C-alpha cells in the first residue's frame, strides 16, 4: 500500500489553514512558495479537497482557500479519500480458480462477489482497522501534536509568514 505524495502535501497545507482567521484565506501561490512545492500540483490537490468539501475557495485577487469545516471534523481518512479516491487496498483476483485442483470445477468460496474467501476477509479487516485509526486522527489532533514536536520558532514563524502575506 502506498499513498501518493498528494496526501502529504494536503495534510501539511491544511495545517496552515487552521490558523487563518475565518474571514481570510491563503492562496495556493503562498502555500506552494512557503513549502517549496509546485503551484500547479498543489492546485490539483486543493481541487480535490474542495470537491470533497474539506476546503472552500475564495475567489478574487486576494482569494485562496480556507477550511470548510472545523479542524476536529476533518480526519486523515477524509483527506486520503478526497485525494486518492475510494478504492480498496486489497483487490481479490480469485487466483485460486487457476489452481490445478480446481481446473475442472468451480470454487464456490472464491468468487469475487463472495466475501468468505479467508485471505480477502483478513485483508478487508486489516483495511478497516486502518480506516478506523485514520478516522480518529484529525487536523486538530495534528495541530496539537505539532505544538509539542516542533520548535516554537517554527510554529510562530509559519503563522507570521501567512499573516504577513494576507496583510500585503
UniProtKB/TrEMBL annotation:
<dbReference type="InterPro" id="IPR030489">
    <property type="entry name" value="TR_Rrf2-type_CS"/>
</dbReference>
<dbReference type="Pfam" id="PF02082">
    <property type="entry name" value="Rrf2"/>
</dbReference>
<dbReference type="InterPro" id="IPR000944">
    <property type="entry name" value="Tscrpt_reg_Rrf2"/>
</dbReference>
<dbReference type="InterPro" id="IPR036390">
    <property type="entry name" value="WH_DNA-bd_sf"/>
</dbReference>
<dbReference type="GO" id="GO:0005829">
    <property type="term" value="C:cytosol"/>
</dbReference>
<dbReference type="GO" id="GO:0003700">
    <property type="term" value="F:DNA-binding transcription factor activity"/>
</dbReference>
<protein>
    <submittedName>
        <fullName>Rrf2 family transcriptional regulator</fullName>
    </submittedName>
</protein>
<dbReference type="InterPro" id="IPR036388">
    <property type="entry name" value="WH-like_DNA-bd_sf"/>
</dbReference>
